[in-house]
Amino acid sequence: MRALFLYDVLKDAGLDVIAVQGWQARGGELEDVAAILWHHDAMANTGDMPSLPALVAGRKTPTPVPGPLAQLGLGRSGKWYVIAAGKANHAGAGLWRGVNRSNRTIGIEAANNGVDEPWPDRQVDSYVHGTAAILKHVRLSADAVCGHKEWAIPKGRKIDPRPLDMAEMRQRVHWAMNAPDWKVKPMWDPAPPIAAGCIAPKGGAWLVSPDGAVFTIEPAPYLGGAYEKPYFRGRKAARIDPAGEGYVITATSGETYHYPEA
Ligand SMILES: [Zn+2]
Question: By the number of CB atoms within 10 A of the CB, which of 31, 50, 129, 153 ranks highest?
Answer without folding.
Answer: 129
